[in-house]
Amino acid sequence: MNNLSFRKDLISLQDELLRFAYKLTTDREEAYDLLQETSLKAMDNEDKFLPDTNFKGWMYTIMRNIFINNYRKVVRDQTFVDQTDNLYHINQSQDLGFESSESSYDLKEMRRIVNALPKEYKVPFSMHLSGFKYREIAEKLALPLGTVKSRIFFTRQKLQQELKDFR
What contacts 99, CB < 8 A, 6 or more positions away? Predict the structure, then answer.
């Protein structure tokens, strides 16, 4: 495919590519940016296009790959990595505002119910709430894994049963 034919095919696909870009991004400006980036990449890689290849499919693949790479970059940029000592930011309470009296009362009621349970149920449940995995709890308490799971399940059921009339 010669240079003129390539550019002519590229121009003829612009409307279809724009619709596809809009489907991917659902934003008009982002769709135009994606179309422009796709066209530029296609022109930069014109020498890699083989004449017997489906041009339209090749262009759609380029656009889809650019979209996926951009999406991954955005997700990676938005990921917060806590590099503080003792993972300060991760362990910090998510709700830094004042608790409402209602949510404070709910927590007190939940604590009352859990604290009223026998120690063999209260301890595994509290450890699970603190972030321990089932296997870690089983090892620390020297209990079978199934026993730990059933005790945590029982405690959840008890909480649900006690709190269903509470709301």
Answer: 107
